[in-house]
From TrEMBL, chain A:
Source organism (scientific name): Hymenobacter busanensis
Highest taxon of the lineage: Bacteria
Keyword tRNA processing assigned: no
Transketolase-like pyrimidine-binding domain mapped to chain residues: 4-179
Family annotation (InterPro entries): THDP-binding (IPR029061), Transketo_C/PFOR_II (IPR009014), Transketolase-like_Pyr-bd (IPR005475), Transketolase_C (IPR033248)
EC assignment: 1.2.4.1
Entry keyword Isomerase: no
Pfam families to which the protein is assigned, alphabetical: Transket_pyr, Transketolase_C
Cofactor(s), names only, from the UniProt record: thiamine diphosphate
Protein name stated in the entry: Pyruvate dehydrogenase complex E1 component subunit beta
From TrEMBL, chain B:
Record note on quaternary structure: Heterodimer of an alpha and a beta chain.
Record-given protein name: Pyruvate dehydrogenase E1 component subunit alpha
GO biological process: pyruvate decarboxylation to acetyl-CoA
Protein role: The pyruvate dehydrogenase complex catalyzes the overall conversion of pyruvate to acetyl-CoA and CO(2).
Gene, per the UniProt record: pdhA
The entry's keywords: Oxidoreductase, Pyruvate, Thiamine pyrophosphate
Bias-annotated ranges (Low complexity): 7-20, 54-66
Pfam families found in the cross-reference section: E1_dh
Amino acid sequence: MRTIQFREALREAMSEEMRRDPSVFLMGEEVAEYNGAYKVSQGMLDEFGAERVIDTPIAELGFAGIGVGAATNGLRPIIEFMTFNFSLVAIDQVINAAAKMYSMSGGQYSCPIVFRGPTGNAGMLSSQHSQNFENWYANTPGLKVVVPSTPYDAKGLLKSAIRDPDPVIFMESELMYGDKGEVPEEEYTLPLDKANVVREGKSVTIVSFGKMMKVALAAADELAKEGIEAEVIDLRSVRPIDYATLVESVKKTNRMVVVEEAWPLASISSELAYNVQRYAFDYLDAPVHRITNADVPLPYAPTLIEAALPNVARTVKAVKEVLYRK
Amino acid sequence: MADTKVKAASKASNSAGKAKPTPKNSTSKSNGKAAVSAAERQQPEPVEAVQPGAEKAAGAKASKTAQQPASKGSFPKETYMTWFESMLLMRRFEEKAGQLYGQQKIKGFCHLYIGQEACVAGAVSALRQGDKYITAYRDHAHPLGLGTSPNAIMAELFAKQTGCSKGKGGSMHIFDKSVNFIGGHGIVGGQVPLGAGIAFAEKYNKTGNLCICYMGDGAVRQGALHEAFNMAMLWKLPVIFVVENNGYAMGTSVQRTSNVTELYTIGEAYDMPSEPVDAMHVEEVHNAVARAAERARAGEGPSFLEFKTYRYKGHSMSDPAKYRTKEEVEEYRMRDSIENVRHTILTQGMATEDELNAIDEKLKAVVAESVEFAEQSPYPPAEELYRDVYVQEDYPFIRE
C-alpha cells in the first residue's frame, strides 16, 4: 500500500469531498494563497478556486460565525483554525450557535459544519499555544469531537466528518502533519463513533487518542519486552465515546491506564474512569490510573516541558503500578 | 441575557420621532464622521436633520427620503393596509404576551417589541420571498410580520409542543423555516456573523436572495459585529445589517457605551453604505431597506441601517425601566408608528375609522385564538428530550 503524510491524507479527504459535493468549501487563515499555515491545503486554491478555498482576516469569531451561518443556510463549510488555541475567541459561535441550532429551532435548522485544526503542544511554544480543549468541546451536547492519530484514520474520519449532518470538531496536531502512514488509493470512510483496538493484549488496557497514541503504543512496546501484554485502544472520537469497546476490554484485562495530553481536572480520562468504575467495577483489579499534562500552563523550557507532558516512562510506570509490579 | 435592574438617568440617544417636522428636502450637509461633542450627545440631533450616510449610500435618492412627508402618498392603499394590519397584529400580540407574562402563563425571559413595529413591517414590504431574516431575542414580531401563525409563536411562548420550536426555544428562539426566519438568537451580537454567513450561502449559490440581519443597539459594541462587518464588506455579501436603536442596551443608554453614538457611522469604518432611518415611519424603513436590497442584489454588498426606534416597555418583563422618564416614553408614544399609518390611511381616505376598528377587533380575536390554542396544546412529553439535538437519529447519548 502507498504511504502518505498526515497532511496529505487530510488534503485528500477535503479535496475528494469538495469534488463530490459542491456545497463543501474551506475557509480559514492562510488556507488559500499561502497554501495553509501547515501546508494541509496545498494546491487546493488552484484546483477549486477562490470561491471555495477562502482566506480570511485574523478574525476567528467572525469567520467561525460566518461558517455557522452558511451551514445553517445549506452549505457544508470546513472552517480551519490555525490552532485550536485560537478557537477560544470563536467559542461562542461553536457552543452557542453551531451546537444549539438544531435544538433551539426544534429541528428546523441543522448545522453541518467541520471545525478543524491542530490541538495540543507543538514543541516549545509556551502556554498560549500548547493547550488541549478536546474535553471542553466534548462536554457540549450537539457537537461531535474527533481526534485522529494516523494518516489512515485522519482521512477516513475527516471524510465522514464532512458528510456528517451535525457539527464536528476535528482536532489534529502540528507534530503529526509530517507523519507517514499507509493510506489506500481507494475511497473509504470511518465511523465517528467507534474506537479502534490497535493492539490486543490481556494484561492491561491503555486508552488514548490523538498524538498521545504514539506514547501509548511506545509504552506497550516497552512493556512487551517485560512480558506485559497491553491492549491499546484508540478512542478516535471523544464525543461520542465508544464506551462499549472500552468496558469490554477492561472486563478482559481488569486494569486501565489512560494517556491524555490535556490537564487532569474534568478531562476525558476522568470521564473514562467514571464509566469504567460504573460499568466494570467488579472486574477491576486496581484503581484506574492516568497520565495527563501536569496541572500547570505548559512553559517554554524543555526541561519543564519534559516534566509536564505524558511520556513513555510515566506510562510504563503507571501500568506497572496498576499491575502491582516494580 | 442577564436581567438585573440597572439604575441610570441618561436619556435615549436615538432621536427617532423626536424631530419636529422639517421642510421637504432640507437635508443636512454635515459630515457623519465629524466628532460629536459630549454636549451634542446629551442632546441628540433630530434624525431628519442628519442624513450624511444616506447621501453617501444612496446618492441623489437620499434627499427624497430624508423626511417622511416626502414618502407619503407614494405607496398604494394595499401597502398601507398591509402595514396597518401587520403592525397592529404585532402590537396586539405583544400586549397580550406581556399580560400573560404577568399572569405567569409565559415564563423565562420575554422581550417585547411594542413601539418598534415599523422596523419589521417596512422591511417585509421591501423584500422578496426567498430573502432570509435573522435577529436577536426580541423576536416575536419578525415572524409575525412574515406570516408565521400567531398560534405557533404563542404556543412557543407557552412552552408547548405545538410551538414553532416545539417548546424547546421559548421566547428568545422563535424559528420558522417556512418563512425563512432563521431565529431568534440569545447572545447579543452573535447573530451578526450568522447573518453574514447566511448571506454568504446565498452568494455562494448565486440565488439573488439576501439576508437581513437585525440587532439591538447593544450588539454594535460586540467584537463579533466588527469582524462580520469587515468580512461582509470585503466579500460583498448580500446582507442588510439593521440596528434597531431603541436607545438602551438593557438599562444602559447608548451614550454610556461609547464615544460613537451615531451608530450608523460604525458601518463607515468598513466603507459600508450606512444611513440613519426614522423607524417611527414605516415608509422610511421600506425605502431604506429597498435601497439596501438593490445594492445587495447588484453585487455591491452589505449596508448598515440604523433604525431609530423606541421600545415602550422595559428591556424584558422584569425590567421596570427606571432609567428613563415617563415623559420620554410619552413623547415617543405621541409619535407611534402605528398611529402614523392610521393617520395616513384616514386622511387619504384609504379606509374609514370603522373599517380600521374592525381590523383591530379581528386581530384581537386572532390573538385571543392563539392564546386558546397555546393553552390547550400539550407540553412536550419527556421523550422529546433527546430529539432534535443531533440530526443523527441513533446518536448514543450518555444515559445512566
